[in-house]
């Protein structure tokens, strides 16, 4: 019987990649002192207003991470 180790961690979405890497710092700089919930709300508004060309790098990274995750699950 093959050994079933721990499941790999599921990757985050393109939005969460953006907010964790660039969005959060930008929002906090523009709106000092806002709560984490407000950061996510403003980030969600900003993400929704972004054109696809601005999102593509995050979407591609998320797609690659998900493909890697699925390969690890198959092993």
TrEMBL record:
Keywords: DNA-binding, Nucleus. Residues 8-75 bind DNA. It comes from the Eukaryota. The keyword Transport does not apply. Residues 8-75 form the HMG box domain. GO terms for molecular function: DNA binding. GO terms for cellular component: nucleus. This is High mobility group protein D-like. It comes from Drosophila mauritiana.
